[in-house]
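G., the chain you wanted modeled:
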Amino acid sequence: MLGLCFNSRFSLCALQVLIESRLPSQLTEHLNSEIVLRSIRDIESMLLWASSTFFSVRAKKVPAKYFPQLKSVGGADASSQVDRLIRDLMVHFFNP
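Predicted structure as tokens:
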């Protein structure tokens, strides 16, 4: 999110606020809502839904923020590992 501000000397400055996903901490509530709305009907639709979330996008952009074990991994390898970790997280929810 970007914004503009004026300081006391009337010079223009830019503010940048990074927004992070809270989905991991609220996963149960979100998945239950999607199941009730019938957006999620099975594991395949759950994985498709998960791949379209802001969480998935941000986790691929800054993987270490959401998955600390990926601190040393970068590039395309990190993206594929994020996909695998999100899939494992979703499957674990579906089959505890």
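The helical segments are 27-36, 43-51, 54-61, 63-66, 75-94.

Shout if anything looks off.
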